Amino acid sequence: GIESTVLSLAEDRPVLLRPGSITVPQLESVVGPVEVRLESSAAAHASPGQHKQHYQPVTPLHLGGPLKTGRGAYLWLRKPLRAARSIAMPDNAAEYAAILYSTLHEMDAEHLDWIAVEMPPDEPEWSGVRDRLTRAGR
Question: Lowest-confidence range among 16-20, 53-57, 130-134?
Answer without folding.
Answer: 53-57
